[in-house]
Amino acid sequence: MGRVYLGRTPAGSAVAVKVVHREYAGDATFRKRFEQEVAAARRVQGLYTVPVVDADLRADEPWLATAYVPGPSLQHAVADSGPLAADAALGLIARVAEALQSIHAADVIHRDLKPSNIILTAEGPKVIDFGIARAADVTTVTATGMRTGTPAYMAPEYIRGQNVTEAGDVFALGVVAHFAATGRLAFGGGTDHGVVYRILEQAPDLDGCPEPLRAIAARCLEKDPERRPTPAEVIEQCRQASTAGIADAHPRTVVSPSGPERVTPGPLGAPGSPGAPGLPDAETRTSRSPRGSGPAAPVPPPSALAAHDPARGAAPGGPATPPSADTSPNPPVPDPLTTPAPGLPVLLSGVGILVLAVVLIAFYLPGSSPDRGPSYPYRSFEPTAAIGPTGQSRDTEGMAFSPDGKMLATNSDDGKVRLWNVADRKPRATFIQRDRVGNDGFGGRSVTFSPDGKLLAATNMTGWLTMWDVAERRQVRFLGTTVDGGERVAFSPDGKLFATGSQTGSVNLFDTGSRKDEILAYYDQEANVTGVAFSPDGRTLASASDDSDSNLTPKHSVRLWDVAHRDPEPYGQDDPRLTISPAQGVLSLAFSPDGKTIATGSYDDKVRLWDAKTGRQRATLGDSYQARVDHLAFSPDGKTLAAPAGRGLLLWNVATRKPRAILLTGAQGPESTVRDVAFSRDGRLIAGNDAKHHKVYLWKNPKESVR
């Protein structure tokens, strides 16, 4: 809905200033609802809520300020230190339920209760952002057909568009309870549509949640809102269930010089540190200058970019960059980056809130989910250049460097494949995916160059494959749905063969040199093929799937086929050399340059490494992508693995299995998400596309693993 700044009142009190995006500010219906919700939020008073201290609802960019609360969010405490102990979780849920009592007493419904909106402090949890989500609901329901909120925590009646009551917040509390005790979501991860389906149609998966918290969560997660307990009943259940008594079961964060340690139970109001700086839910922008008492720097607009450390940041009403070892009473003031955003003076009205712009983050926007994972405590890098716009469509689905690194090909939903000069970022050619009778294709999918760079192949969602001669700019091959051209394509390392994968589950092998539609071999994947890749020696073809067969039997797997074993009959080859069966559907796969490892990306936001010879899982690279892993790529030297991470790319050190850097686009706004990734053949450049802004960003590959 907007941006959040860390600010201070003239008396030095820290506040979180939330400034509404212009796209919402210009909507009269939104403004009226926003005024109503802010007025209601001001009436909320309670031990475990964060008060609204001021607002200007008539400004060009309306804003409100809430008290700043130091401490990590529950989301990041669990991500960093693991689930809470049973009694600590019971104490937490009882206090959050008490916060809901305070919120509901003011005739406010939170609508977006989730771990990132619960800040852990020495005085207990603090619930933030109550009621504000409703202001955007009118606008977003009309524009997108989806309600505002985070799908994994939405009650069934909210999803269906029915009347929302306090029971909807209790449902979210049940999801929070399960997450606090297990670190997992009660209705799983993956696509929003998949999560919504499970909320509406399936029972929650509460495996691993200890009793009696499991029973409490189960009652909160009843489909029928009338059967859910009230917050008061939840508090009583927690009180009766806690062996230590909820007054003494209180998660707090212990602070050490190296950062927050494991969250442990401790007495309410125990003396000690007020909490460690929490990690924000979206990417942060921080900038520091030498300490001094000079005038405040102007506020940078969202587009302002600076070198930053995502380990520090601010959540709405919550964690922000503290003075750390600095004994100065005020945080360091950043270097002036740009002039203030129009309509946003440095000294805001009301109580005179001074916006220092020490921290700028993007808080929740419809279409993005802050709870996808924490920000990253690793050095970040901004792009060196951008290519685009890559088309009038919503997404750039496929992307590939030419073997010499001089060109970049993009495949867009408008059915056009564009060729760009990497050096000057200007377009060199546009290829149209067209069948033999002149019909244009749509819904671009894969695109790839042949190893010698002479051919360019692209697929689309229609199931076509089109191939062009790059030098002559002419179409040389077309495979339609009659031969199952497919949606995924890969060339063999010697370029003599290419393979396609389709939604029907077929993986087909073709002779690159032939201009006939003859299929050399069929391989049966049995479900929607999401990726195909040849091993570096060309002897093995790997295919991946993310779906079920016609009988709804889960078929997500990676199958390795012996290229020399060819059966030209349809679906004739159904005995792969090796089958890898991850627990989640596979969206992407890649061979390491030495051919010993296969990397897969899934709906659950994880990348997994597998032994290509035995199929045994070697490692899971984190749970912090903030996005499904549609694509991934090894660097040419095999030392780095890159995968999408929200508004950027995360780089992993393959040897240590640890992240070493994050590459950020700097883009803001809903659905601003990187979907694809590619390395240039020399490994010096990395490309990632922004599906929202129709651009491809280029970064120099950072060689240093700096924390």
Give the CA-based shape: globular
Average residue-wise pLDDT:
74
- Output the number of helix runs: 10
- Helical residues, percent: 10-25%
Question: What count of domains describes the coordinates?
Answer: 2
- Low-confidence sequence ranges: 135-147, 252-377, 548-553
Kindly report the CATH topology of the largest domain.
Answer: Transferase(Phosphotransferase), domain 1
Query: What name goes with the CATH superfamily of the largest domain?
Result: Transferase(Phosphotransferase) domain 1
Question: Under the CATH scheme, which architecture of the largest domain would be assigned?
Answer: Orthogonal Bundle
In which order are the strands of the major sheet placed? 3-4-2-1-12-11
What does this structure look like?
The strands form 11 sheets. Strands 3-4-2-1-12-11 form a 6-stranded antiparallel beta sheet. Strands 13-38-37-36-35 form a 5-stranded mixed beta sheet, with no helix packed on it. Strand 40 (685-690) and strand 41 (695-700) form a beta hairpin. Helix content is 15%, strand content 29%. It has 2 domains: 2-265 and 307-372, Transferase(Phosphotransferase) domain 1 (Transferase(Phosphotransferase), domain 1); 380-700, Methylamine Dehydrogenase, Chain H (7 Propeller). Helix 7 (166-182) runs antiparallel to helix 9 (213-220). Mean pLDDT is 74; it is low at 135-147, 252-377 and 548-553. The protein contains 10 helices and 41 strands. The relative contact order is 0.09. The chain is globular and about 75 Å long. It is α+β, with helices and mostly antiparallel strands and 707 residues long.
